[in-house]
Amino acid sequence: MKLEKCVTIDNVNRNLLNIRYAVRGPIVDRALQIERELAKGASKPFNRVVRANIGDCHALGQKPITFIRQVLALVSCPQLMNSPDLPADVKDRATEILQDCTQGSVGAYSPSAGLMIVRRHIVEYLEARDGVSASLEDIYLGSGASDLIKSVLTLFSGVVDGKPPAVMIPIPQYPLFSGTLAELGINQANYYLDEEDNWALQVEELERSYQEASEHSRVVALVVINPGNPTGQVLSRQNIEEIIIFAHKHNLFILADEVYQENIISKPFYSFKKVMHELGAPYSDMELASFVTCSKGWAAECGLRGAFLELTRLSPPVRSVFAASRGVMQCPTVLGQCVLDCIVRPPRRGETSFAQWREEREKIARLLAERASTAYSTFNDIPGYSCNPIEGSMFAFPQVEIPALAQEEAADLDMSPDEFYCLRLLEETGVCVVPGTGFGQRPGTFHFRTTILHSREEFQHMMESITRFHNNFLNRFS
Ligand SMILES: Cc1ncc(COP(=O)(O)O)c(C=O)c1O
């Protein structure tokens, strides 16, 4: 007798059916398939796929920071402690971390909020960044910012006073937010970033979104991604003040996704915490969740999964509820916590590893700034393209005019015009980018997101391929 499945597509959690994550979507699947075809000797107009779909620096050739990997080597294998090949400050750091691990092993669970030593270093890092005191009790470590963002959003799921909750998110947005809200059954209230004003947040648009969502939902929180993904802007201090004042007016909890704060290219970064503090009461008393991750910045250790959350001014009972919900997960990966420790407390001047750390870090920053400037000028030179300056993060998000004929062909194939464009780009050049649809965009506008992390040669090859492709595309469809 055929065994019936317990979970079927008809009874599976309905919320999961609504999750979309274009960064690993169908175009990326097709890219992987093309890579396999090339490996089998298929003939294509290109000899390799250029993966520009994901902000994963190490996957694109960035070398790990030596200090981080040496500390990881030692905490994982303390038998190396007497090795003459490892510098004294690496040994000191590894010893300090291991002293905080149960039985001196990174293989033991840590407290669910994270190792005390790492949280202490995070407090020092935040105090130096913001000039405001930070509290150990507000710091939670996680296995990536995705893990922590989901935990915070979970606070808001559930109907109150007969209305479902809604969270305001930017459009374009990083689809972790839309995906997690869908999974948790929380309504998504979209507000559009202003492309004409370098992707700023306009208060009138925030207000429009809030009022529209309030007709059917209880709007509880506002997500801001700064520096922006996919948009690459860094918000001005004045804009942050306006956002805080707006959130205060409507009693909204702010989730500041600040994971790209160490990927600053051309404009200063201000944390929401600092600006709230400097605005003074009542703004300095608002609840705030802010996220930092090992996956971005100069370390870019995506695979090691480390991040932290600063969760300020939560009411004490909610703080206990949150701590209990984090406790259920045991603890974040301890190796990820060690990476985080090296990021928030890197080698200091006078310590053995300082010079090498500084050189490695500066090289990464130089390359990022160089790519940002090349991407900006190349995209703005292509007819029908426009691209805002890339002030931070690791992405460009150019707008592309797609001719009417191409839009019709896309419709025939049941695709959006930008998906059609990106698929053609992939098939003809091997360049894999993510269509704007995956992040959201104003109706009638078309974009794609590309990472700007490749080696100089690969990046040049990518830019030339896109330019050539677009000219052919215009010839064919205009
Ligand atoms: C804006 C933003 N937030 C959060 C994340 C999640 O990062 P992770 O879970 O790797 O820490 C990412 C990853 O790309 C991101 O771009």
TrEMBL record:
It is an enzyme of class 2 (transferase). Pathway: Amino-acid degradation; L-alanine degradation via transaminase pathway; pyruvate from L-alanine: step 1/1. It catalyses: L-alanine + 2-oxoglutarate = pyruvate + L-glutamate. It is found in: Cytoplasm. Residues 100-466 form the Aminotransferase class I/classII large domain. The keyword Acetylation applies. It comes from the Eukaryota. GO terms for molecular function: L-alanine:2-oxoglutarate aminotransferase activity; pyridoxal phosphate binding. Its cofactor is pyridoxal 5'-phosphate. InterPro entries: ALAT1/2-like, Aminotransferase_I/II_large, PyrdxlP-dep_Trfase, PyrdxlP-dep_Trfase_major, PyrdxlP-dep_Trfase_small. GO terms for cellular component: cytoplasm. Keywords: Acetylation, Aminotransferase, Cytoplasm, Phosphoprotein, Pyridoxal phosphate, Transferase. CDD domains: AAT_like. Its EC number is 2.6.1.2. Homodimer. Catalyzes the reversible transamination between alanine and 2-oxoglutarate to form pyruvate and glutamate. Participates in cellular nitrogen metabolism and also in liver gluconeogenesis starting with precursors transported from skeletal muscles. Belongs to the class-I pyridoxal-phosphate-dependent aminotransferase family. Alanine aminotransferase subfamily. This is Alanine aminotransferase 1. The lineage of its organism: Eukaryota, Metazoa, Ecdysozoa, Arthropoda, Hexapoda.
